[in-house]
Amino acid sequence: MAFRPFIGWSQKELETSLRSAQDDYAAGKTLSSVNGGDAGSSKLVQMNPEQRIKAILYELFLVDPDTYPASAQNRVTRTQVKFSGYADGTYSSS
């Protein structure tokens, strides 16, 4: 992870922010802004809750790897099935 927006935050601050991001994710919060007057527009760029959770978990891993292991931040995206058998590729069910 190249971009680290939470450098210098304490573990307590990170855990509080993690809880807030989890609440936002669970509630399905999104950002939207619409201006109707004078044909103006504005744009606000913000991390979505899932991105915030990933970034915070990474920082927590750096602060306390025993409590927040690397496996807490990596999701399984692919699995592979392996069947056991004999070395020559044959299989016997006795």
Model description:
- This protein is mostly helical and 94 residues long.
- It has a domain at 11-35 and 43-68.
- Helix content is 34%, strand content 0%.
- The chain has two helices and no strands.
- The protein has helices at residues 11-27, 49-63.
- Helix 1 (11-27) runs antiparallel to helix 2 (49-63).
- The longest helix has 17 residues, at 11-27.
- The radius of gyration is 22 Å and the shape is elongated.
- It starts with 10 loop residues before the first helix and ends in a 31-residue tail after the last helix.
- The model has no long low-confidence stretch (mean pLDDT 77).
In short:
By secondary structure, the protein is mainly α. It contains two helices and no strands.
Cα-to-Cα separation, first versus last residue: 50 Å
Helix content: 25-40%
pLDDT averaged over residues:
77
Shape by Cα distribution: elongated
Question: Strand fraction band?
Answer: under 5%
Biggest β-sheet strands, sense, barrel: none
Number of strands: 0
Rg to the nearest angstrom? Answer: 22 Å
Question: Segments where pLDDT lies below 50 for 5+ residues?
Answer: none
**Could you give the order of the helices and strands?**
HH
SS-based class: mainly alpha
How many H/I helices? 2
